[in-house]
Description:
Elements: H1 3-15, H2 19-47, H3 53-75, H4 79-86, H5 90-116, H6 129-134, H7 136-152, H8 160-164, H9 166-181, H10 188-217
Amino acid sequence: xxxxxxxxxxxxxxxxxxxxxxxxxxxxxxxxxxxxxxxxxxxxxxxxxxxxxxxxxxxxxxxxxxxxxxxxxxxxxxxxxxxxxxxxxxxxxxxxxxxxxxxxxxxxxxxxxxxxxxxxxxxxxxxxxxxxxxxxxxxxxxxxxxxxxxxxxxxxxxxxxxxxxxxxxxxxxxxxxxxxxxxxxxxxxxxxxxxxxxxxxxxxxxxxxxxxxxxxxx
Length: 218
């Protein structure tokens, strides 16, 4: 068999779509469609309760920052599809989503602080536990910033991934904050969405840790 024939055979094998790939494609596009619907639905809900400009900015920033962080975490499970949709390398698309999410999450307390003229909103409250969870967004902001900073300088830190995992903890803290005191998460449908996202992120974290464990013990 000539090199040309061998190349064609390899190309054909790579181009063939296996049942597993088709299933993953269908799963991805289903998730993608659901996310688009959720974005439109959230926008509709927020616009149903207009308020002062800074309050509206805070609500939009909080909800869509939360969603952007979720998408950045979810994207790590669909690297090839993210590359195809965004038209850029996976890491760039992943980091862009994360940057947008962190920026929006930062705009949320800043808008509320400007409205109330009170910047103590940036101070984390660690005790009691119920208050810590209700105001979990404060702690989560610093965890996101720390994880993002380590990711930017990952070449200098051998164990940067361990710090990067703080994103998962931060996301769960934001979820608790949204469910306990989020003004746009009082409706059942929004609470269900938040719970589904929190469970999904927890599942992704477990999946990644199992993968790391397998590599270590191979």
